[in-house]
Amino acid sequence: LAKDTFEKVVGRIAEKAAELAEPPVPGAPAPEPPSLEEPTEPRAPLPPRPDQVAPAVRTATGNDVDAEPTVRAQRETYLTTSTGVRLRDTDHSLKAGERGPTLLQDHHLREKITHFDHERIPERVVHARGAGAHGVFVGYGTADTVCKAAFLQEGVETPTFVRFSTVLGSRGSADTVRDTRGFATKFYTDEGNFDLVGNNIPVFFIQDGIKFPDVVHAGKPHPDREIPQAQSAHDTFWDFVSLHTEAQHHTMWNMSDRGIPRSYRTMEGFGVHTFRVQNAEGETALVKFHWKPRLGVHSLTWEEAQLLGGLDPDFHRRDLYDAIEAGAYPAYELGLQVFPDNAEQVFEGIDLLDPTKMVPEEMAPVQPVGLMVLTANPTNFFAETEQVAFHVGHLVPGIDATDDPLVQARLFSYVDTQLSRLGGPNFNQIPVNRPHTETNDMLRDGFHQHAVHTGVAPYKPNSLDGGCPFHAGADGDLAGVFEHLPAKVAEGTKVRAQPASFDDHYSQVRQFWLSMSPVEQEHIIRAYTFELGKCYEQTIKERQLQCLANIDARLCSEVATGLGLPAPEPTIALQEPEPSPALSQVGEAWPPDGRMVGIVVDPDGDLTGVEEVRLAVFGAGMVPLLIGPHGGTIGGMAVQRTFATARSVEFDAVLLAGAPVPAPDALPARDAKAGAADTAAVDPRVVLLVEEAYRHCKVIGAWGAGETVLEAAGVTGTPGIVRGDGAAEVLEQVQEQMAYHRVWERFAS
Ligand code: HDE
């Protein structure tokens, strides 16, 4: 179902792109190369490039944004003031003589500078750094038995906007830090907007929303020096999570490879909370939402993540935009875990209202209900990605929140935060936030009011505006009408307390640990050792080791050894939960779409087969990047990366074609490895590329003289090194192995 839907969506996008592309005029002269001078002839503003044409954003009244005069931007050929008066000079301020002081009456200068002074808005208090994309969601109709929401019906297509994010860092921080990732989706459904504001981790640090400022203050930089940026490897974070032990489950996920995703395209998403849904017959059920990436779940290695923080802090953004532009559309299947809506709201002993617990997929399989394909990049980052405002309370008929105390607080927080972030109560009028349905909300005035409301009676009941707007459903037809799903409220006294079922903070953490493969466990040990090693306070390290002792003795003792501290005994009886294989990322084969393959070539070497390999890589839906000693072209093929600009972290696999490139005089080659052939002459940047690709367990292929580079880098004869006589044969084997993301055996060696 997913494959068919994906192909249908992609087919339609390709048709649209073909329509937008200008047809070539037969016999037309070749276009003039662009001039290096500043253009002087007036011309209409440049339209967005075809790949930037976002799905039509309709306004609240259902019009195309382009047709709506209030939101039209920048149409005039000539420069104007913001009030539309044409200007002939924006380069010089108005002065009393050429060398004189600037005059206060220069209203163009003041307008330009004042607007600039106010260009920034407050960044999000959490999830400040993000990347967005437009998409389309197609329902399979399989959710019908539990949920009547119109967008889940079979074949219904719903435009979406997704924003992925890190949590702790500022807007300008690096993408690849160890952190939770946000995965927030706005569905512009025919019944109004539905926002699924999830994360890539299915559990949360806290069980009650009142603790949110505490966990965020602990994770953010220290208030005195404002360091460290965008990371949890510091005292305040570990102080909090070691004292507030319900955070241990989320923290374990952060310390695992899930904390450093390879790409937003290879990340799962989770609604975290349990939601209540209702079908057309009025029956209710409890569900948890899951996003499953079509390309599988895949992560960076820690060293890659650190290198990327410096080499390409925009790595995840770039990866998302490039993949969409290249037509390798990221796709995610939406799935539901379904539980009976019983009075206790407990499933097989797991309290469904406790957001620090998840339900293993082996106990409640994730049932696919639709597919989302991300098909277009934003046209303007600020207008769309920055101004998009999500809210867990944006619900549609058939979906409601539960009494999970975390979601209850979120229902308040998301509107509240937009008031200061977007400067007033009218943020739902911003194009990216507008529903694609019609609205009639009787909300009036306020900062940034764009609508020119008619009528005199924005109140109900009224007779002056003919009683408009009317209550929906008054005629008994409840289709498309939102109603809170009736649920019995627990009886009791007002208390600041939580149920005893929330008290188990360790059994699922141990389950996660036991479900990991040996390689993944090793990564977790290293992550804890690194993070605690960055703390200064001895007591914090000791306290966290105590928490680890309550999870697993080996985990605790290995981290303790790394810290040079004794491993404590557990303070609780460790349980032996069934492992959940679905939690591990290792072992499955995945489609290759959008993977990056670096091809190292030497202009003077043997280029036989390189062009065929490039085309075959492209044909397989991957991105071939030619790496040469200089830019321009080699053998008629465009060079995308030079030895100076390429670094191993960008590639999922490396191919070595032709002869090894001799080191230029300025860069002395490394000493040849003992016993190696004539390798001293290989360019050291290529040697580094191969060494790193090897260390990060990527597949490396070489043919012909390219094999000399393997020897120079000392990476001969081990798993994931493919040699062969011809380029095609090597590529085939490389592709087979790439499906598993990495050469996992190599980690163990
Ligand atoms: Fe959020 N969260 N959150 N959160 N959250 C925000 O809203 C909040 C929580 C999540 O790309 C803020 O517009 C509270 C869980 C994402 O624009 C703010 C609590 C989950 C995003 C806020 C939580 C999330 C946010 C900051 C505890 C996973 C980014 C700016 C009760 C299910 C959305 C904003 C985007 C953003 C509050 C806990 C996901 C302050 C009070 C659990 C993906 O309103």
From TrEMBL:
Metal-binding as UniProt keyword: yes
Alphabetized InterPro entries for the sequence: Catalase (IPR018028), Catalase_AS (IPR024708), Catalase_clade2 (IPR024712), Catalase_clade2_helical (IPR043156), Catalase_core (IPR011614), Catalase_haem_BS (IPR002226), Catalase_immune_responsive (IPR010582), Catalase_large_C (IPR041399)
Domain of life: Bacteria
Enzyme Commission designation: 1.11.1.6
Bias-annotated ranges (Pro residues): 23-50
Pfam families: Catalase, Catalase-rel, Catalase_C
Cofactor(s) the protein requires to work: heme
Catalytic activity: 2 H2O2 = O2 + 2 H2O
Sorted UniProt keywords: Heme, Hydrogen peroxide, Iron, Metal-binding, Oxidoreductase, Peroxidase
Region (Disordered): 15-55
Keyword Oxidoreductase among record annotations: yes
Domain Catalase core: 80-468
Entry function: Decomposes hydrogen peroxide into water and oxygen; serves to protect cells from the toxic effects of hydrogen peroxide.
The family this protein is said to belong to: Belongs to the catalase family. HPII subfamily.
Name of the protein in its database record: Catalase
